[in-house]
Sequence to fold (314 residues):
Amino acid sequence: MRVTSKYLFEKAYGKFCIPAVNVSNPEQVHALFSIAQKMEAPFIIQTTPAAREYINPNMVLSYINSAEKTHPKAVYALHLDHGYETHIIDAINSGEYTSVMIDASHDPLEKNIKRTKDIVKKARQKNISVEAELGVLSGIEDNLNIKEENALYTNPKDVEYFVKETRCDSLAVAVGTSHGAYKFSGEKSLRFDLLNQIQKKLPQFPIVLHGASQIDSMEVQRINKAGGGLLEAAKGISEYEIKKSISYGVCKMNIATDLRLLWTRIFREFFRDHKGEWDHLKPGKQYIKELEKLLEKKFELLENKGKATLYKHR
Fold:
C-alpha cells in the first residue's frame, strides 16, 4: 500500500521512526520490500536525482511497482530525495511519487521559503507530501559535495516562521550529521540541544534526519582489506543517538551509505577471493541476503517492526 509520508508520520511521531532508504538498483528494491513485508514495518523508499540519471526514471519506477505487486502487504511512501525543481515537477507529474523533497537549503532564508512554497502549492494539488530543508549538511553523496566549513546548523529561531510560511509537511534539519561515510569527526556528535529547541518551536511537527547511516567500523576494515581506501576513523550515528532522537520528534531517518558500504564490501571480497569469477549475479544474491539482515536491524532499532498494522487502506 503506497501512502504519503505525512500519513506515515501521523502515527509515528514520538513513538517510532520511519526508515527512508535510498535505492539505485533492483537488488536494493527487492531486499527492502521483502524484509519490510515480513516484519510488517512501514518504510519510505527514496530515489535521488543521481539515481534517476543513472537508470532511466521509468525503469527505477518499474522496479518499485513490480516489488509492490510481489509484496502487496508492504506499507510505504515513494519519495524523491534532494530534488531540484525540474526533478520535482517530473516526479509530481509522474503520478507515482507520494512525497518529494525540495532542497533549497543553500539559499538565503527568504529565497528558500519562496522556492519551497512554489513546490508545496504544486504538490498539494495531487496530495503529495513535501519535505523541506533548513540548514546545510556537509559531506559527499551522489551529486552533493559540501565542505565542512560551509555547513550550517539549523537555527531554531527560524523553524517556526519557515514552516508557517511554506506549509511544508516535514522539515529536514542540520544538527550534526553529514552525507557520506564520514558523519562525525573527533568527538562531534548529534546536537540534541538544537533538536530540543526545534521541537519546542514545532511541537508535534515531523523532523527529518539526513545522513543517518551508522557506518559499521567492521565493514570499513573489511573493505580496506579487500583493496579499499576508506578512512579507518569513519564514524556514523550511534544506536543511542538514533533512539534518543525519536523522542525529539524525528520521524524519518535517511539511510544510504550503509547500503553502499555493504555492497562495496561484498563485491570487493567476492572478486578478491574468486579470481576466476566474472558473474556479478553470485555476489548480487549474497548482497540481497545480507542487505535484508541489515535492514532488519534498522527496523528493530527504529522500533517500527509490526507498525504497518497501524495503517489502513485509504
Q: What stands out?
A: Residues 281-301 form the longest helix (21 residues). The beta strands are 18-22, 43-47, 76-83, 99-102, 129-134, 139-141, 144-146, 170-173, 207-209, 250-255. Residues 138-142, 144-150, 179-187 have pLDDT under 50 and may be disordered. The chain has twelve helices and ten strands.
